[in-house]
């Protein structure tokens, strides 16, 4: 396969950042549930659907993301996933009811589920075999760092700003 004319490390940054954000969104809402529930007059137990809906949708799309990528084209599927994920994130931040957030989190999870496998495939395509290990290491660092940053960022934004900002980042 021919390699792109652009520097592979630019491609790596371009595909790792959305994946970092997708993994970050897995954990960013954890510490904000009581703020979300309180402002939307919902029980904290019901607010847990904000997390569950995202994770369930994400897990649902993962097994078929390769098929979708093959049908739509890897680049097109990746860009579609980023676009839908971003729009769903904004809608989560603008939601006025708990069930709106749950619906938008399902959409966000479906879009985000395609980002990780697509990112890895794009990285493999962009790097020669001798540098693929380094690219996957950087990818792994981003994927492992995001769940650590998520609760910290979510707590900070909820305490010092307002819970919708966890979805606007």
Characterise the protein shown here:
The protein is mainly alpha-helical and 169 residues long. It is built from 10 helices and no strands. The protein has helices at 8-27, 33-39, 44-47, 49-61, 65-72, 74-94, 98-112, 115-126, 129-160, 165-168. Helix 6 (74-94) packs antiparallel against helix 7 (98-112). The model has no long low-confidence stretch (mean pLDDT 91).
State the gist of this model.
This protein has 169 residues and is mostly helical. Helix content is 80%, strand content 0%.
Name a few traits of the molecule.
mainly alpha, elongated, single chain, 169 residues
Please write out the topology.
Layout: H1 8-27, H2 33-39, H3 44-47, H4 49-61, H5 65-72, H6 74-94, H7 98-112, H8 115-126, H9 129-160, H10 165-168
Catalogue the unreliable spans: none
- Calculate Rg over CA atoms: 17 Å
The total count of helices amounts to 10
Inertia-based shape: elongated
How many extended strands? 0
Q: Helical content, roughly?
A: over 70%
| Run of helices and strands | HHHHHHHHHH
How far apart lie the N and C ends? 36 Å
Mean of residue pLDDT values = 91
Largest sheet: none
Beta-strand percentage range: under 5%
Coarse structural class: mainly alpha
């Amino acid at each position: 396969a021919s390699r792109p004319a652009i520097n592979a490390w630019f491609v790596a940054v371009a595909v790792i950042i959305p994946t970092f954000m997708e993994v970050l969104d897995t954990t960013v809402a954890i510490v904000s549930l009581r703020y979300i529930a309180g402002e939307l007059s919902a029980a904290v137990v019901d607010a847990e659907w904000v997390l569950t809906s995202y994770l369930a949708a994400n897990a649902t799309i993962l097994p078929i993301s390769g098929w979708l990528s093959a049908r739509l084209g890897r680049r097109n599927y990746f860009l579609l996933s980023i676009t839908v994920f971003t729009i769903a994130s904004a809608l989560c931040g603008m939601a006025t009811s708990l069930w709106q957030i749950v619906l938008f989190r399902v959409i966000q999870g479906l879009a985000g589920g395609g980002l990780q496998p697509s990112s890895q495939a794009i990285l493999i395509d962009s790097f020669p075999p001798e540098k693929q290990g380094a690219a996957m290491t950087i990818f792994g660092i981003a994927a492992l760092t995001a769940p650590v940053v998520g609760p910290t960022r979510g707590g900070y934004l909820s305490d010092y700003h307002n819970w919708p900002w966890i979805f606007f980042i």
